[in-house]
Each structure stands twice: as structure tokens, then as C-alpha cells.
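Need a sequence for this fold. Nothing fancy.
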């Protein structure tokens, strides 16, 4: 049925809305800073709600601030189809990360409406609270709660840099109700699909319109600290020194080697943070702290590398006679996208006449958590030079249009949309 429907995306309003949304920011354009439930975020939410309502969608917000805009289907009791992404933005980032999935989702719904379609299943356009960890140090806060992966009382007790708990912030921003009511019932969605920029260079390099995501790599992180003995860099002789930077430096090398030796090409390990105390040229480091990020699409392999690095960290501390603390700060499981959604996206690409390629998402997304509750997939569009989390982030109007069109056809298929007008009228052909 859906193959007979001609849908068109007008990317002009999509570009205009992305630009307008970017104005809700704590810093001047083209940079965007929009921290969860800040004044800018609240204003952005108000703007979005207006757009959703004018498209005839029913808007509700859950106690975590996740926003749902529902296009009610002809059989509203059936499990719905979900789409969406996030609108919060880390400090000094760009205007496309996440927002493309929200406003692109709206563009897809409008295209279906314009083609005279009505879905059998309802379609929920979701804007997740705080995909970025900026405020509370926890990424995907909204989708984590929706999928039951974060204890509601733990979430309420999270504290931001101003000592404000999430519970207090919710109260101040009128998010009423208990976080215990946030987890989705098992039959809420028949499928979820997220449109997002690739945040990497592959699609642009290969000149491919759409990436069909098959796996989402999962991050894990370790924090390691070494306590040595400080002292004057000139007066303390080399013999008997307990320089805390030595085990740390060896660990940086060991992290890199662990991913290369034990993993596959999909295993990556990075020491992204190394702090040295007191941090002066004439002072022997007395304490160091490292944070190490390890990712893979295979959980067992990721955990093998993680465990190896943790052991290595410990034994380097012993070798250098230092008090060593190794903490695991995060270990989310990776996700495999559902065949149902992957195939729907690929068929949608064929229908839309765009080139496509299967790929892995090496960044994590709300879809990582939605995959815990329903069949999930992701649609990637190219972004200029793969740049993301930066004011130079850019996706062309053509790329945006392609993404929204493929999303529209995917939603049509997953929600079994049918024409509501006789053929020959409107834009049905
Ligand atoms: Zn994102």
C-alpha cells in the first residue's frame, strides 16, 4: 500500500525550525548551549509544543520531562510506533545533534498528513530529557528512566553542580508526579526509530545518503586514581621516589594496547582525562586521576577489555607502590537493532530512491535504551566532515530532507498507514 503513496519533504520549514530552535541557547549562534530544564531548554520546549500542537498532535509530558507528541492512529489501542530524539545540547555545541530527530520526525509526520495518510497505529514523537550528561553526569536520563534502567529514587537524588537535586529541579519546573510512573509498559511501542546525524565522516566520504544502523556500541568507563608521594622536583633524588604519574603514564599505553590486542576493529579504548596533582613543573606528582572510556558492539568483548584494563591499573599501582583506586563509573550494554526496523528502513530507502548502507553507531543515543523495551533502529544522515558537538556542526537541506523522507516511509510501514482520501485527490498517486 505504502509504495503507492508519493510523499514529499519540504526541507525549507525544517531548516527554518532548526535555526529557530538553535536560538533557544545560552550562547550566541552558531554555538548552542541548552542544558536540560534550563530557561533556554524550557523556552525551546514551549516552542516545540506549539509546533506539535499545530500539526494536530496530542502533547503530554511525563514526570521526567520526556515530551510525547502523539498522532492518534485509527486503532489507538494498538501499541504505537515511536520516533524522536533529544534537544538538549552540551555547552558550545551545534544545532543538529538530536534536534534533527525531533524536528525531522515532525517533518515526517507532516509529509504523511499532506499525502492524505492516516496511520493505523498511533505515532509518538518523543523528545527525551537530557540525552547529554551535562547537568547530572548521567547520559540519556530520560530514556534510561523510560526503559527502567535507572532506579527512580536514585534519579531523584542526582545532584547538579549547584547542589540541586533532580527532585527539586522537577518541582521548580512543574514536572509533577513520581519518577516511578515513568517506565514504559512493555506493550507501549511496537517499534522505535530515531533519525540522527551520523556524527562521523563515513557517509559523506562515501557519498551515501542514509546510514541504516545495525548496532549501537555501548560505552563503559573506568576512573583510576594513584596516590604516590609528592616532593620538590630538585631535592628528592630519583631513588625511592613514588611519582604518581608513572603508573598513570604506563596505564595510558596499556589502555591503547588492550583495545588493539584483545579487541576487534569495533573495540575502542581511550584515556580521555588525566589529571596531575599538584600540577607544577617543579613538583613530583603526588596524585593522578584518569578516566578511561571503552566501547564495543559486543558486550563480552567490551567487558573482557574493561576487566583487563582494571587489572592492569591495579598491578601498575602495586608495581609503583601506590594506593590505587579503580572504579567502574558506567557499563551500559550495547544494542543490536531489530531486523523489523532495519528492514523497514532499507525498504523506505528504496521507496524514497536514496542510497543507503548498513553501519554501526559508535556514539550512544536514546535508542540504546529504547532497544531495551521494543524493537529499535536508527537512521543516520551525513553531516559535514563528521563534525558534531561543535558550533560547526552542519547537515545540508538535502540530507535533512532525505532523512525525514526515509523516516516518513519507515513510519508508514511500521504504523501501517493508509490513505484517508480516495485516489486522485491530494498528493496520492
Ligand atoms: Zn544526539
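Here you go.
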Amino acid at each position: 500500500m505504502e509504495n503507492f503513496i508519493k510523499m514529499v519533504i519540504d526541507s525549507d520549514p525544517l531548516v527554518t525550525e532548526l535555526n529557530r530552535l538553535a536560538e533557544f541557547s545560552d550562547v550566541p549562534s552558531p554555538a548552542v548551549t541548552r542544558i536540560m530544564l534550563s530557561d533556554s531548554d524550557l523556552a525551546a520546549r514551549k516552542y516545540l509544543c506549539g509546533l506539535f500542537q499545530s500539526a494536530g498532535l496530542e502533547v503530554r509530558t511525563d514526570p521526567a520531562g520526556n515530551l510525547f507528541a502523539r498522532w492518534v492512529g485509527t486503532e489507538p489501542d494498538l501499541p504505537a510506533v515511536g520516533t524522536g530524539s533529544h534537544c538538549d545540547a552540551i555547552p558550545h555545541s551545534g544545532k543538529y545533534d538530536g534536534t534533527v530527530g525531533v524536528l525531522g520526525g515532525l517533518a515526517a509526520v507532516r509529509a504523511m498528513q499532506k499525502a492524505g495518510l492516516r496511520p493505523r497505529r498511533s505515532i509518538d514523537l518523543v523528545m527525551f530529557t537530557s540525552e547529554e550528561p551535562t547537568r547530572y553526569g548521567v547520559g540519556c536520563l530520560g530514556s534510561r528512566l523510560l526503559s527502567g534502567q535507572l532506579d527512580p529514587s536514585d534519579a531523584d537524588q542526582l545532584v547538579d553542580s549547584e547542589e540541586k537535586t533532580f527532585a527539586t529541579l522537577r518541582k521548580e519546573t512543574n514536572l509533577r508526579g513520581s519518577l516511578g510512573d515513568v517506565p514504559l509498559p512493555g506493550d507501549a511501542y511496537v517499534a522505535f526509530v530515531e533519525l540522527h546525524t551520523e556524527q562521523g565522516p563515513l557517509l559523506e566520504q562515501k557519498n551515501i545518503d542514509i546510514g541504516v544502523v545495525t548496532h549501537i556500541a555501548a560505552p563503559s568507563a573506568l576512573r583510576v586514581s594513584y596516590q604516590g608521594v609528592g616532593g620538590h622536583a630538585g631535592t628528592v633524588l630519583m631513588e625511592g621516589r613514588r611519582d604518581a604519574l608513572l603508573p598513570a603514564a604506563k596505564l595510558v599505553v596499556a589502555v591503547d594496547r588492550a583495545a588493539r590486542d584483545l579487541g576487534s576493529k569495533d573495540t575502542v579504548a581511550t584515556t580521555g582525562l588525566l589529571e596531575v596533582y599538584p600540577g607544577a613543573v617543579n613538583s613530583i606528582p603526588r596524585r593522578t586521576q584518569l578516566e578511561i572510556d571503552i566501547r564495543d558492539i559486543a558486550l563480552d568483548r567490551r567487558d573482557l577489555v574493561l576487566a583487563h584494563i582494571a587489572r592492569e591499573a591495579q598491578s601498575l599501582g602495586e608495581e609503583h607502590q601506590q594506593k590505587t583506586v579503580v572504579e567502574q563509573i558506567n557499563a551500559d550494554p550495547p544494542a543490536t537493532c531489530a531486523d523489523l526496523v532495519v528492514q523497514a528502513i532499507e525498504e523506505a530507502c528504496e521507496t524514497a530512491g536514496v542510497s543507503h548502507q548498513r553501519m554501526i553507531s559508535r556514539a550512544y543515543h536514546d535508542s540504546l535504551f529504547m532497544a531495551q523495551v521494543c524493537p529499535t533502529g536508527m537512521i543516520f544522515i551525513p553531516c559535514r566532515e563528521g563534525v558534531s558537538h561543535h558550533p560547526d556542526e552542519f547537515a545540508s537541506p538535502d540530507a535533512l530532507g532525505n532523512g525525514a523522507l526515509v523516516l516518513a516511509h519507515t513510519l508508514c510501514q511500521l504504523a501501517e498507514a493508509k490513505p484517508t482520501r480516495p485516489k486522485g485527490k491530494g498528493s496520492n498517486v
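For context: The chain has a mean pLDDT of 94.
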